[in-house]
Amino acid sequence: AQKITQTQPGMFVQEKEAVTLDCTYDTSENNYYLFWYKQPPSRQMILVIRQEAYKQQNATENRFSVNFQKAAKSFSLKISDSQLGDTAMYFCAFAYRDMRFGAGTRLTVKP
Amino acid sequence: GAVVSQHPSRVICKSGTSVKIECRSLDFQATTMFWYRQFPKKSLMLMATSNEGSKATYEQGVEKDKFLINHASLTLSTLTVTSAHPEDSSFYICSASKPSGRPPYNEQFFGPGTRLTVL
Q1: Which of A68, A90, B43, B111 would bridge B4 by S-S if both were Cys, CB 3.0 to 4.6 A apart?
Q2: Residues in chain B within 8 Å Cβ distance of A32
Q3: pLDDT tens-digit readout, A25-46
Q4: 3-state DSSP helix/strand/coil percent for chain A, to nearest 5?
Q5: Is the Cβ pair B42, A96 closer than 8 Å?
């Protein structure tokens, strides 16, 4: 099974600042998908952003953008203009036939 | 949209009893459903993959006799925790998928989860 690594257990960011969450993965597949999910205290999984591996262009969704480096197998998430509501667990995920998750990063946005 | 529901949202049971958790895709037919387990402050761990009308595929280390999965229709999958013990207490999340994107990937939609507490 693919291995997904998130090395930042916890991150803090000041409101309105930017923060980057890191993720690396290991795979021999070619046409896969990568995701960042947000899990607030309610524990509902919320899709933040999706990247198709066959697309070179980095995905963006409003304040959220990714830096996808396919050769390096890295997939980081940048949150710009952080808001208090961004406080949550963030999981990097890899999908081919099924979906696997990294260990997660707990992001806290400070006022 | 693509909505997935789970029932119940919370359940408390006595040790030794069995508990059934339902996962439904409300507005689409799911080609495949997945069951995950999440311990407090931990990540989601894939337990099994189920396809309608066929036996579920379990991940290594997941006891198939302990966690019975039935996928009776394209909109319903059930997870039954048999002879539950306190160590089975966890948050169980299902997801349902439908074709979208490049195969073999199918887009997944997550249910809200079920918190199981075994006393």
Answers
A1: B111
A2: 105
A3: 999 998 899 999 999 999 999 9
A4: 5, 55, 45
A5: no
